[in-house]
Structures are given as structure tokens and as C-alpha cells.
Design brief:
A six-stranded antiparallel beta barrel has the order 9-10-13-12-11-14. A five-stranded mixed β-sheet has the order 1-8-7-3-4, with no helix packed on it. A three-stranded antiparallel β-sheet has the order 2-6-5, with no helix packed on it. About 5% of the residues lie in helices and about 35% in strands. The protein folds into two domains: about 110 residues, Sandwich (Immunoglobulin-like), CATH 2.60.40; about 80 residues, Beta Barrel (Elongation Factor Tu (Ef-tu), domain 3), CATH 2.40.30.
Length: about 210
């Protein structure tokens, strides 16, 4: 019954939707994340121990009428509170425009993420460093906007100061201007972020 209600509610979603992630055309993304996966019975409890293989991840690219398996063969890995990283390769992102990534896994409510594949990367609105770090999903910026929610929904790109080739990506869930505190939607899990690491905040367009 719960699944029926969820599917029925989805039919009444507005046609103008803000894509919650941006991907670069023909570019692999090893830290792409999807979630949160929640219990199929109560719709609340995060599912943190699902086995999501590459063949469980379906993609619908712009112009296609069907969903197809992602070509990147890596299984998904749980990171935090029901969020899983599911790597994509350059073939998975080879079509410009809307991209739906969907997973149906036993024990969890069907979960999807709506992305936009762009020919160019989204603009960087601030380049700074991590001033202080409370957890791997919460840190303050050395410089940033004084306005609350200024970066909500944007992408945070964190570069390891000691190994610049290492980069982690995550969506900003919340931003507090008075303290310049960034809260990420999930832990990217690529490397252990620390104070003085570089941070770029990238914000893209709203798709209507």
C-alpha cells in the first residue's frame, strides 16, 4: 500500500523540476552518489547495508525512451545515512541534457536522482579553503557568503591540499552564513578531508 501511495504521489509532481546534480559531458564521476535509501515499510529508517550491484543501477538519458544499465562496473558503496556512491564512467555521461539514475533494491523504497549532463562545467561561485572541520559532512569556510542557504543545492568540490589529484564531490545540503558552515548531503568517502583543504563551490542552472 505504501508503494502505491508513493507512486501515486509521484504522478502529481510539477513538470518544472530543479536537477539536484550536475555532471560533465563524457567525464567519469567516481564519487556520484544517490540516496537516501529508506526502509520500504516505514519510509523513514535509512537503509545502510544494501547490496547494490552495477546491474541494479539504471540510467535514462535525454532522448531515450528506456532505461539501460550503467556501463561502469563498480558496485555502489554506502557512505552515510542511506547515501551510496555509485561510480559513473564517460559512457554513462555521454549524452548532454537530463539524466535519471534509478535504483530499485529489495528492502528499500525505489530511489532515483535527476541530473543534468553539461558540456561545460558549472560556474565556480567561491574558491576558498576549509577553516575548521567538525565531521566529514560539516565544515566552515575561510571565506564565503554571509547569507544563509546561499550555497544550498550547489556542488562542493574538495581538493586534498597534500595530494591535489585527489578530489571529492558532494552536494551542499545546508549553509549558514553567519558561521560560514557547510553541511554536505553525504560523506564523499574519497579521502579524509581536513582543515586547509581547498574548496570550490559550483552552482548550476535550474532546468525548467
Amino acid at each position: 500500500m505504501k508503494k502505491f501511495l508513493l507512486l501515486t504521489a509521484a504522478l502529481f509532481l510539477p513538470m518544472g523540476v530543479m536537477a539536484d546534480c550536475l555532471l560533465k559531458l563524457n567525464t567519469a564521476d567516481s564519487s556520484f552518489a544517490i540516496g537516501p535509501f529508506v526502509d520500504e515499510n516505514d519510509g523513514i529508517t535509512p537503509e545502510t547495508a544494501l547490496t547494490i550491484t552495477a546491474s541494479d543501477v539504471l540510467l535514462k538519458k535525454k532522448g531515450s525512451t528506456t532505461f539501460a544499465l550503467k556501463t561502469e562496473a563498480t558496485a555502489c558503496t554506502h557512505r552515510s545515512n542511506g547515501w551510496y556512491t555509485c561510480p559513473l564512467d564517460a559512457t554513462d555521461t555521454n549524452t548532454e541534457g537530463n539524466l535519471i539514475v534509478a535504483v530499485t533494491e529489495s528492502g528499500a523504497v525505489p530511489t532515483w536522482r535527476e541530473c543534468v549532463v553539461l558540456r561545460e562545467t558549472a560556474p565556480i561561485v567561491v574558491s576558498t579553503t576549509i577553516a575548521t572541520l567538525a565531521t566529514q559532512v560539516s565544515f566552515t569556510l575561510t571565506a564565503g557568503s554571509a547569507d544563509d542557504n546561499a550555497y544550498n543545492g550547489c556542488s562542493a568540490i574538495v581538493t586534498d591540499i597534500s595530494t591535489p589529484a585527489q578530489k571529492a564531490y558532494a552536494q551542499v545540503r545546508d549553509y549558514t552564513g553567519s558561521t560560514k558552515t557547510v553541511t554536505l548531503a553525504y560523506d564523499p568517502g574519497i579521502f579524509t578531508m581536513a582543515a586547509t583543504d581547498l574548496v570550490d563551490i559550483s552552482c548550476g542552472p535550474v532546468m525548467r
